[in-house]
Amino acid sequence: MATTNAALRAASTTIRTSRAPRFVATAGAAMRAKGLFEPASGRRELSTGTPASTSPSSRLTLGLIPSDGIGKEVVPATVEVLAALDAPIDWIELEAGFECFKRQGSSLPADTLETLRTRCQGALFGAVSSPSHKVEGYSSPIVAVRKELDLFANVRPVVSVPLASSKQGVDMVIVRENTECLYVKSEVIEDTPEGKVAFAARKISEKASRRIAHKAFDIAMKRLAARGSAKVTIVHKSNVLSVTDGLFRETVLEVAKAYPDVRVEEQLVDSCVYRMYVDPTSFDVLVAPNMYGDIISDAAAAIVGGLGIVPSANEGDNFCLAEPVHGSAPDIEGQGIANPMATVRASAQLLAYFGDSRRALALEEAVRDVIAAGGLTRDLGGDLGTKEVTKRLCEAAAARYEQSA
Question: pTM, whole model, 2 decimals?
């Protein structure tokens, strides 16, 4: 973690040593939720649902998990931007990921999980290099954290930015059930006379479907209050998977009855992706089972400029782990050209969860300002490196924060 620690020291952080955590840094804080990236009184509001009971001046202890690849570059960059806002966060650096697995034999060490459970209120995650082929003993740490901490909702705002590759007028929130579906990873393979046959079990429960439905409709209600209308699109494939998707669909529709002011529609997952490309502005809040949500989230990112600018938050009742949507990008690791914007926007979601709407809004507006001024890394068509974009984000965020006083 030498590179990460050096970058954090450069961001004027304070260092504290203990066995599991590597350091504590000054940065972020609390934030109240309204409706994700919704215009309100000429300003944009940011929120991810029900925040924890903190105030913007309360200090938070949050885990910092750079993990693999460019996560070790974009996470320290984000801490630097948060430090520019003098946000009161104590960071505890923790280990996880494929590189950790190769060193320790575990992608999510027990002390990392225990520290998150007992000492942290939330966390910022970088990226993980999960191999596409089977590696004995390895499993994704981010999937494990979601399950172990019951982070049942993955909330992904997909919003237009001032970029030529971004369709304009897009403002949707994808709410993905985070703990079930095929991601329970119950798979077997059998030898048959016709060769090997693999089976995967899919879990959809009424309980999980109900609470993700409430999450989606609660977000829709906040958007309704901010702009006067709201719609939830239920994404499924119950015309084929009538039992599992049928249960998800029926449960969400039952929950919808408690929200009569929110319009409801249904969309088959395959036609949903098509509609995203031809008519993305027609979506507001989407709710989907785990795998469908994963797929449509990445598809939606392409509409607004790519994975390099889209954030997400894994939310439970009392814990939030925010992360960029992009992967570890090993092809550009260590070259100093990684785009930190998605991680900065993820940190805004993290702040939103805890009630610090002022800092969160400053971060979101800073990203838009830097993009509009041409402060782009190579993935967005520019030629700036991580350090220069981070510097511009620090300046823009500080200016936006001061203006909002």
Answer: 0.86
